[in-house]
Design brief:
Blueprint lengths: L5 E8 L5 E6 L13 E11 L2 E2 L3 E7 L8 E7 L4 E7 L18 E7 L2 E7 L3 E5 L5
Antiparallel strand pairs: 1-2, 1-3, 3-4, 3-5, 6-7, 7-10, 8-9
């Protein structure tokens, strides 16, 4: 059976009032929505003179998500006592949302030195430090 005629759509974002419009059967419609950052529930229904469709639901994360932890953390020290700490940057997020470019100080490390600690930020997946011999 082929549908014809006009359909009314309702797009719900969380508990907000629906966005409503009309589209011809067999056509597509692009409906811009605004969602808060975080997990959101989207529901779409269609209706015509015969009645309403079942609800189509989708839960999705909107906005920048938190990256998954780094992987393959490796520390190597060469004969010149240069220490390289490397890792594989994450390619996925905690909720399946947008990762973005990990360039704005995504990695923090803490350095303890003679009872003083300091927090530093890195923009890459390599930290290099020359180490002195222990006294």
């Amino acid at each position: 059976m082929r549908f014809s005629g006009e359909l009314t759509y309702h797009v719900y974002v969380n508990t907000d009032a629906p966005l409503t419009g009309k589209v011809n059967a067999g056509s597509s419609a692009s409906v811009p929505v605004q969602a808060r950052e975080g997990m959101n529930t989207f529901v779409v229904t269609l209706s015509n003179a015969a009645g309403a469709s079942p609800k189509a639901r989708l839960s999705a994360y909107a906005g920048y998500d938190a990256p998954m932890p780094i992987d393959k953390l490796t520390l190597s020290v060469d004969a010149a006592r240069r220490a390289d700490l490397t890792w594989t940057a994450p390619t996925a997020t905690e909720h399946g949302g947008f990762l973005g470019a990990l360039t704005l100080r995504p990695y923090s490390y803490y350095r303890n030195r003679h009872d003083a600690s300091g927090r530093r930020h890195l923009r890459c997946s390599l930290f290099r430090k020359s180490c002195r011999k222990a006294r």
